[in-house]
Amino acid sequence: MATIPVRLRLEQLFCYHGADESDSEPYLWTVVVTLDGRTITHRPDAPSLDGAPGIWSSPGSHGSLGGPVGIGENRTVPAAVGHHDTTLEPIVITAAGHRVEVPGRLVLVAILLEDDMTSDAGAEAAHAKVVDLLRTELTEAVADLDLDGVGAKILRGLAEGRTAQDVATEYLQQRMKRVVDRLNRYAQDVAIATIVRELSFPAAVVEASDPDDFQGIVVRSWSQDELAASDTHRRLAVDELIYDHGAGHREASAYNYALHGHVWQPIEEYWVPVADTLPPGRWQVTGIQRTGRKPFISTLGGVLPDGSPWAMSKSRVMDLLRAGTHTFFVRGETGAEADVVTTENEDNPYFPYLATVADADPTNNLSTLPPCTVAIRHTRPAP
C-alpha cells in the first residue's frame, strides 16, 4: 500500500443565526490528526503500538474567521485556519509471522466558539489547553490499543480462508474507530467549554461576566482506503451542522451554523489507450468488449510478450485475418485452441461478425471471455 497525499479544505461557514441578536463573532480552531505509519509503529508480536498520532493545529483565536458574521451570511474560512496538506501511510503490523499493512486514518476536529469578553490572551491560552487535551487523549488512546491476540486472530482467519491482511486490517480499523469515537464523546463533553471559561484572563472580573462561548465541535474521520479512492474531481464532502444539541432541535438552538469543505487526494487521473497494433503472427485473445443496444463484440484484446495489454477493433482484426498476416485464437480450460474467424451474417450480409471455430470445449468460445483492457489509468499531481 503506497503513501498517499491528502488535502483538507474547510471552505465556508454559513450562519443560519448566531449566538447574538445582531452580528455574531464566531472563531474557529481546527485540529488535524493523522493515525498512520509515519508516527505509529509496531514491534513484531508486541501487544501494543509505539509512537503517537501526528497533530496539526490552526493558529489564532479571536478574529480567525475575519470578524462579525450576520444572519444568512457565508464566511470564507481562511487558508491558515482551514487548509492543511499532509500524507498518510499504512501502519505495518507484524504478528504470527505475517507482515501486513493497515491503512492509516485522517481525523478532523473543528471547534467553533463565540467571541464575547474573554481576552485575546485568554482565548489563546484556552486554545493551547484544548490542543494539549486532544493530544493527551489521543496519545493515551493509541497506547491503549490492544493488539494482544491479533496473531491468533490471523491464524484463525487463515484457517477460515481469509487473508492475514484482511484480518489485521479489520481488527485494527475497528480499534482505530474506537479512538475516534472516544474522542468524539469526550470532546462533546463540557470539558472544552470549561477550559474556555476557566482560562478567561487577565481581565478575570470583566470576562467572568460574559466569557467566550463554546458553540460546538465537528469530528470527522476518513480511512486511507477511502481517501485513496478520491481525486481532485471526486472529493469527499465535509457538510456539518453546528448547534446546541441540548436544545432538542437545531431551530430551537441559540446558534446554528453549517461548516462546509472537502478532503481528497490531490491527484488527477488520465487514461492512456493500450497498444492497438500487433506484429504479424499468432495471437491469443483473452478478452472482449461489447457495444450497442444489442451488444455485439466491438473490440478484442490480449497480452503482449512483455505483459502489457493490447486491444484492437473488430474491423481491424477482420482486416488482418483477410490479409493473412495474423491469426487469432481463444484457449479453453482444457488447453484446446479455437481459431477466431470471420463469419458471414445471414441477416445482414454487410455486417459480418467474428466467432470461434466450434469444438468440444465451450470455454474457448469468444463470447465467454471477460472484458479486455482498452486503456490504462495513470495519475499525476493536481494543482
Description:
The protein has 383 residues and is an alpha+beta fold. Helix content is 24%, strand content 37%. The chain has helices at residues 79-82, 120-143, 150-159, 164-187, 191-198, 204-209, 224-228, 314-323; strands at 4-17, 26-35, 40-41, 50-51, 54-57, 74-76, 83-88, 91-95, 98-102, 105-114, 213-223, 236-243, 256-264, 267-273, 281-284, 287-291, 296-303, 309-313, 326-331, 337-343, 353-356, 375-381. Strands 1, 6, 7, 12 and 13 form a 5-stranded antiparallel sheet that branches. A 4-stranded antiparallel sheet has the order 5-2-10-11. Helix 2 (120-143) packs antiparallel against helix 4 (164-187), helix 2 (120-143) packs antiparallel against helix 5 (191-198) and helix 3 packs across helix 4 (164-187). The two termini are 24 Å apart. Mean pLDDT is 87; it is low at 201-208.
Task: Walk me through the topology.
Layout: E1 4-17, E2 26-35, E3 40-41, E4 50-51, E5 54-57, E6 74-76, H1 79-82, E7 83-88, E8 91-95, E9 98-102, E10 105-114, H2 120-143, H3 150-159, H4 164-187, H5 191-198, H6 204-209, E11 213-223, H7 224-228, E12 236-243, E13 256-264, E14 267-273, E15 281-284, E16 287-291, E17 296-303, E18 309-313, H8 314-323, E19 326-331, E20 337-343, E21 353-356, E22 375-381
Parallel strand pairs: 15-19
Antiparallel strand pairs: 1-6, 1-7, 1-13, 2-5, 2-10, 3-4, 8-9, 10-11, 12-13, 14-22, 16-17, 17-18, 19-20, 20-21
Helix pairs in contact: 2-4, 2-5, 3-4
